[in-house]
Amino acid sequence: MFVSSRGLKQDPPAIQALEELNAAVKARGFTTFIVDQISDAVKVINESQKYSAVGIYWDPSNPKIDIECQEFIDIFRKRNATAPLFLLSEDNVTDRVSLAILKEVNEYIYLFSETPTFTANRIYTLIHRYAENLLPPYFKTLKNFTEDGDYYWDCPGHMGGMAYLKHPVGTEVYQLLRRKHDAGRYRSRYS
Which residues does UniProt call coiled coil (predicted)? Predict the structure, then answer.
């Protein structure tokens, strides 16, 4: 999610740069959208935890930007303590940003300093690192095996479930799925 500003509407080059960045991030396979102001972002964040990163445009024409940004970060961090946050700006604003905000921000993006594709790749890297650290070790390995196609880990019925039975946790997963399947819980959904 990108958090824009009403003040940005008076700056067509900055709007274009933000829209190009949004398109480049979408091209990397993410679902994105732009909200008009921080108060809109607060509403969106309160409704859902699905955001893996948030970019906030630092509007120097907004006298309350520091307070609004800190309030948003506080709300966002209560729901998600480690998701990447980045500041978007047209120039270097780090000398005008409070230390509390600087500590929370993972990346500073100057809209006119790099290409949208380069910046989208930086955002992708932040999100990828964040996602890699979310999963517990066993599930992370299971997910990687499934995505790599090394085993039929996604379906215990293939190969008789032998891959599951090679590890104690896998045995527990196998038994759980077998019990639910035998009870008929998965038949209608996956049959």
Answer: none
Mean pLDDT of the chain: 81
Task: Read off the pLDDT of residues 46-90 as tens digits, 9 standing for 90 and up.
Answer: 887 778 899 998 988 888 999 999 999 999 998 888 999 999 888
Can you tell me the distance from the alpha carbon of 1 to that of 32, in angstroms, rounded to the nearest whole number? 5
DSSP secondary structure of the chain = -EE--GGGGG-HHHHHHHHHHHHHHHHTT----EESSHHHHHHHHHH----S-EEEE--TT-TTHHHHHHHHHHHHHHH-SSS-EEEEESS--GGGS-HHHHHH-SEEEETTTS-HHHHHHHHHHHHHHHHHTTS-HHHHHHHHHHHHTSS-TT-TTGGGGTTGGGSHHHHHHHHHHHHHHHTTTTHHHH-
Query: What pLDDT digit, counting tens, does each position of 89-115 carry?
Result: 888 888 889 999 999 999 999 888 889
